[in-house]
Write a structure and sequence with these properties.
The protein is α+β, with helices and mostly antiparallel strands. Helix content is about 55%, strand content about 15%. It has a domain of about 80 residues: GMP Synthetase, Chain A, domain 3, CATH 3.30.300.
């Protein structure tokens, strides 16, 4: 065996570091998923804050916006009913006029949350 073959064989027998760096997956998550969600929801959040009355707005959280459907979590059935009635009586038109993209409907879902965390998906 020549020196190159010995060195190559020796390098192949060494233990490889199998620990993975978390920076790459986290960077991908932040750049692709969270940044996209923040951009989408951020534009709608200003419109939502402008159109929805304070007494109901503080009981809601914007969850997602996809294909023209805005999903909103509401923390109680009473507030969800009030918001449904407001949206049916013309508030949806006002939100649609101010929304930068297409808004086909607003989907209201039950969800518990606090002001610092995003709402959980409803449990079946």
């Amino acid at each position: 065996m020549d020196e190159w073959q010995l060195r190559h064989a020796w390098q192949n027998r060494q233990r490889r570091d199998r620990t993975a760096s978390l920076s790459e997956p986290l960077a991908h998550l932040m750049k692709r998923r969270l940044a996209k969600r923040v951009r989408q929801i951020g534009r709608l959040s200003a419109v939502w804050d402008e159109c929805i009355p304070e007494y109901i707005r503080k009981h809601t959280a914007l969850v997602s916006y996809a294909r023209g459907v805005l999903t909103v979590a509401v923390d109680s059935a009473a507030h969800r009913y009030q918001l449904q009635m407001l949206l049916a009586n013309g508030l949806l038109v006002a939100v649609r006029e101010r929304t930068p993209g297409p808004l086909n409907r607003v989907k209201l879902q039950p969800g518990r949350f606090d002001y610092l965390e995003m709402p959980d998906k409803p449990r079946a």
